[in-house]
Write a structure and sequence with these properties.
There is one protein chain. With 366 residues, this protein is an alpha/beta fold. It is 37% helix and 20% strand. It starts with 5 loop residues before the first strand and ends in a 7-residue tail after the last helix. The mean pLDDT is 97. The protein binds 6-O-phosphono-beta-D-fructofuranose.
């Protein structure tokens, strides 16, 4: 007989298409295959700290019809690290410190035997720290950036690419009508996977990614050659983390109380202004921003999310605590939470996708 009777699931960090599909798969596998009880913890670790009405029972009824829904029915927070938490004590004083034991007590008081945390680096780091304190934790990685080294692909990436390609298709018709350059800024933080995929899928003329420092003159040269070939408009995709040769990354905001406070952005306008001068076509900048993260997950992401969620429950039932679910090739697998934190991957500047893009005339500004 398994020692697991009741589990909890929560989502932390920025949202991502497919979170609800994971919650659904966790709940269905746990209740229907194993007869477990499932509790959803709202607002990530903040809900774990607050307890009470933040803990909600999840049943078949709560998760039916959510596979196609974007966002997370459990809400999320990317600020609440219970190992370094700001809170108000009973006398109204603002205090700061490690309140992880409150979270552990709330799990115990609710008879919760194990916890599934769905999130990015910050959420998984806390998952690892709870695991070190004896909580039975399984992590499920999520990010539209697809930059986690331990797993082949994260759910949400496919949807973000599809959303962005759809936007580029629309931008292209207006760019063409006005003979303009439109510079489209992609998310992705310090990795160029998203920009590269949407640039190729959207048939961009240039793709600027963090892994290849660009020379704006080289980009301009490519667009001028296209004009000579009769193409009097252009789409340039620039990753928010891209950098000019010898230049700096563009920081748009510092979110002080976030575990990862730097927010990137703003490079598109600079690139557009430079290209307007160098190429001689009018240029505009579009920052896609959170449009990439919103809406219904693609069919592929629904399938991948279902696999991640169902496998997380399998790991719990096999007693493989302290691990994160991964996709290894095309098989579900797992890796210790101790080994995955802070392990990011980057686009290979000499890799197949970059080479194919260059072979089809795309400039990376090098
Ligand atoms: O990591 C996902 C991501 O969407 C990044 O691509 C982006 O830089 C960041 O989150 C934006 O964060 P926020 O939602 O806090 O603005």
């Amino acid at each position: 007989m398994s020692e697991i009777k009741k589990i909890a699931v929560m989502t932390g960090g920025g949202d991502c298409p497919g979170l609800n599909a994971v919650i659904r798969a966790v709940t269905k596998t746990a209740t229907m295959k194993y007869g477990l009880e499932v509790v959803g913890i709202k607002h990530g670790y903040r809900g774990l700290y607050l307890g009470g009405s933040e803990f909600v029972n999840l049943t078949y009824d709560n998760v039916k019809n959510i596979i196609s829904k974007g966002g997370t029915i459990l809400f999320s927070s990317n600020k609440d690290n219970l190992f370094d938490y700001t809170y108000e004590d009973e006398n109204g004083n603002i205090c700061h410190g490690d309140v992880s034991d409150v979270g552990i007590k709330n799990l115990k008081d609710n008879n919760i035997d194990a916890l599934i945390v769905i999130g990015g680096d910050g959420t998984l780091t806390s998952g690892r720290d709870f695991s070190r304190k004896g909580v039975k934790v399984i992590g499920v990685p999520k990010t539209i950036d697809n930059d986690l080294a331990a797993t082949e692909t994260t759910f949400g990436f496919d949807t973000a690419v599809a959303n962005a390609v759809d936007a580029i298709d629309k931008l292209k018709t207006t760019a063409e009508s006005h003979s303009r350059i439109i510079v489209v800024e992609a998310m992705g933080r310090y990795a160029g996977f998203l920009a590269l995929a949407m640039g190729i899928g959207g048939a961009a003329d240039a793709i600027l990614i963090p892994e290849i420092e660009y020379d704006i003159n080289k980009v301009a040269e490519c667009l001028k050659n296209n004009i000579k070939r009769g193409k009097e408009h252009a789409i340039v995709v620039v990753a928010e983390g891209a950098k000019p040769k010898g230049g700096e990354i563009f920081v748009s905001k510092v979110v002080e109380d976030s575990p990862d406070p730097i927010r990137l952005g703003g490079i598109a306008k600079v690139v557009a202004d430079q290209l307007e001068k160098l190429v001689g076509l009018e240029a505009r900048a579009t920052i896609l921003g959170h449009v990439q993260r919103g809406g219904s997950p693609t069919a592929n992401d629904r399938i991948l999310s279902t696999r991640y969620g169902a496998y997380a429950v399998e790991l719990l039932m096999q007693g493989k605590f302290g691990n994160m679910v991964t996709l290894d090739g095309n098989s579900m697998s797992y890796e210790s939470l101790e080994n995955v934190i802070g392990q990011n991957k980057a686009v290979d500047p000499e890799g197949e996708l970059v080479k194919i893009a260059e072979a089809t005339g795309v400039s990376f500004g090098r």
